[in-house]
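Q&A log
Question type: sequence-to-structure
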Amino acid sequence: MHDFCFTIPYGLLLVFGGVVGFASKGSPASLAGGVGTGLLLVLAGYLSLKAFGKRKNSYLALILETVCAAMLTWIMGQRYTQTSKIMPTGVVAGISALMTGFYLYKIATGGNHIPQKTE
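Response status: OK
Response body:
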């Protein structure tokens, strides 16, 4: 599975969560954190998709994805331990931990698998 297949939906989920958090609680931190991180991940996924279209790997995008997911895991994990609220901190921390593991796996295995050209 290619990283951009998960990164773009993950980023859009964060954008949606940031907007919903702002709309329901009036939290500018939710808006800035969710939308900012989400758009950064969507951009990284797009860069990875474009590189894959050129039959290359984008290690810059993969590192950016890993750093964003690891930071979210740490920040939201800390908030979860302080509040014990499953929604949204526990869910975001859990999804981000899974994504961090996936990105580390992709880095360890050399990025996206580029299929051989058939003639």
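Response note: The mean pLDDT is 93.
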